[in-house]
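User: Reviewer 2 asked us to show a designed sequence for the structure in our supplementary figure. I'm pasting the structure tokens here. Could you produce the per-position amino acids so we can include them in the response letter?
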């Protein structure tokens, strides 16, 4: 009898356990890519949208869920969608960068992106990954923890997504095409935006002001996404401190700050305590640019509105770091640390199998038809990446030769004083060259800015992985001295890092995701100019260490 009841008990316990663990859901979304007219700053233009929305609709999921997003293209452009920061373990086919992991979805065609969110929770975003379409084709991805798993911080009263973007009065495809023709830089945007709205500090824009109504004495979780094309920004809320708790869907040690610095491709979750009794306060967004490069220097503004305060009262003025506040930017970056708790350990590779040093920066290409006989270009280790005409992942999977080579240089081809006087030859080499990585090898990559044309802060994004940011500094990386200062305990873990202007950043990751993975500057203009390359992570020996076969509906080129 006892044995029987024990068995029944055991079955019961197993059932309960099963129902707790096997709760992952499959969530279906339909994305129709279509034009819709939007008016900002008194300029109306058709923009490319998801389901007519700008910013696009939020995707909600829990850690462990599978997403099936059916994307149907009803615009004249080829389209792909990238799920920025989603690791895509063995499912590189669903990653989205055009001609890297897939051929684009052509007009009137569709493709179902099918992937599972494994070991990640937090805020990420999706965006188009072809041409400059992500200017308006983007939206939040909110990944909640598994059911019954709490946040490692006080439960917020409410959660809010804030998508930061850039608006051009002109058509963005015309903007970049014009720049490529002339050889110069594209026009800066006309406004920054908060959830698609520039706010009242612009002409003809007061009605396009994002307002967040809050109750006093509550905690709000703000999920902030920089979906801008070309500008890194600061974000702040007058009279309020922000507590950073997560970046790029990885929990951090909480810290308080008056403002955050956030690069295109980065996400930051902050807690906001509405510790005032009443009031109206400006939230502000302004570009960060500490190199001699013109940017959109206007302040986008939204309003934090305490419920009960009349909305006729004047909002408290925005306070935001100066546009060139390198010190603030550096201090903010250095304040970020992984939470590194028992539940969320920072798994920093302690040994390195492969050492890479990549210079990143601007340069020139010859262009006989351009005004100066040259065109702005950008490169990594002096290779300006040439886009293939069929997807690299398909070529890799099917062993098609002639599409790419695996000889991307591990080090700069000719070492020079990277941040000093530029070398005489400013021209880049061209190629579709990739770096091959052994499955599960550990990689240390030092990203070194160059002063060719000009230094600049480049937000470098790696697909398919998070990496740990071990250290960074100004000037040239010193392989003898700098590693001694690396943080190998609780460095921030991200998918996008802003490499300091005229400086370097060292990152590490484990190549545990077989496939072809794009790495590029997340300033879209620099990607256009060639500041991009890709890693091939080879299959491991076991079946579960290999990339899965392509889905049947994968678009053809
Ligand atoms: Cu968010 Cu390859 O980009």
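Assistant: Here is a per-position design you can include in the supplement:
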């Amino acid at each position: 009898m006892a044995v029987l009841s024990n068995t029944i008990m055991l079955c019961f316990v197993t059932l309960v356990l099963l129902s707790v663990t096997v709760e992952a859901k499959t969530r279906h979304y339909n994305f129709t890519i279509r034009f819709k007219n939007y008016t900002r700053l008194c300029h109306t233009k058709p923009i490319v949208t998801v389901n007519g929305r700008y910013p696009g609709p939020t995707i909600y999921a829990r850690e462990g869920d599978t997403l099936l997003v059916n994307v149907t293209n009803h615009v004249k452009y080829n389209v792909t969608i990238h799920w920025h920061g989603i690791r895509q373990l063995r499912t590189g086919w669903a990653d989205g960068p055009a001609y890297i992991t897939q051929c684009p979805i052509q007009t009137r065609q569709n493709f179902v992106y099918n992937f599972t969110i494994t070991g990640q929770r937090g805020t990420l975003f999706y965006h188009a990954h072809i041409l400059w379409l992500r200017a308006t084709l983007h939206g939040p991805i909110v990944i909640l923890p598994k059911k019954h798993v709490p946040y490692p911080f006080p439960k917020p009263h409410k959660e809010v997504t804030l998508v930061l973007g850039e608006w051009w009065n002109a058509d963005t495809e015309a903007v970049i095409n014009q720049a490529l023709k002339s050889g110069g830089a594209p026009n800066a945007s006309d406004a920054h935006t908060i959830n698609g709205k520039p706010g009242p500090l612009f002409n003809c824009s007061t009605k396009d002001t994002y307002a967040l109504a809050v109750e006093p004495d509550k905690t709000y979780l703000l999920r902030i996404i920089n979906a801008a094309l070309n500008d890194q920004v600061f974000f702040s809320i007058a009279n309020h401190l922000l507590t950073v708790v997560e970046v790029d869907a990885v929990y951090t040690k909480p810290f308080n700050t008056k403002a955050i610095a956030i690069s295109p491709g980065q996400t930051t979750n902050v807690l906001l305590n509405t510790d005032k009794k009443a009031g109206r306060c400006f939230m502000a967004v302004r570009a960060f640019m500490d190199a001699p490069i013109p940017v959109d220097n206007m302040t986008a503004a939204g309003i934090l509105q305490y419920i009960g305060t009349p909305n006729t009262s004047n909002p408290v003025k925005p306070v935001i770091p100066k546009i060139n506040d390198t010190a603030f930017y550096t201090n903010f970056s250095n304040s970020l640390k992984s939470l590194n708790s028992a539940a969320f350990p920072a798994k920093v590779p302690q040994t390195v199998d492969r050492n890479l040093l990549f210079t990143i920066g601007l340069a020139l290409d010859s262009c006989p038809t351009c005004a100066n006989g040259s065109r702005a270009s950008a490169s990594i280790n002096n290779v300006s990446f040439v886009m293939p005409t069929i997807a690299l992942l398909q070529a890799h999977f099917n062993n098609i030769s002639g599409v790419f080579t695996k000889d991307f240089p591990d080090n700069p081809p000719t070492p020079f004083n990277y941040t000093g006087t530029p070398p005489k030859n400013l021209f880049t080499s061209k190629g579709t060259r990739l770096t091959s990585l052994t499955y599960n090898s550990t990689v240390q990559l030092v990203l070194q800015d160059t002063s060719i044309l000009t230094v600049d802060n480049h937000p470098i994004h790696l697909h398919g992985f998070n990496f740990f940011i071990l250290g960074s500094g100004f000037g040239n990386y010193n392989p003898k001295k700098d590693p001694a200062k690396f943080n190998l305990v609780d460095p921030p873990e991200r998918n996008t890092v802003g490499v300091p202007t005229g400086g370097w950043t060292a990152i590490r990751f484990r190549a545990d995701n077989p496939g072809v993975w794009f790495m590029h500057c997340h300033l879209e203009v620099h990607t256009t100019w060639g500041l991009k390359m890709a890693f091939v992570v080879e299959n491991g020996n076991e079946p579960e260490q290999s990339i899965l076969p392509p889905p049947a509906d994968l678009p053809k080129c």
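For the response letter, you might also mention the following. The two ends are 67 Å apart (CA to CA). The chain has three domains: 14-144, 158-335, 354-545.
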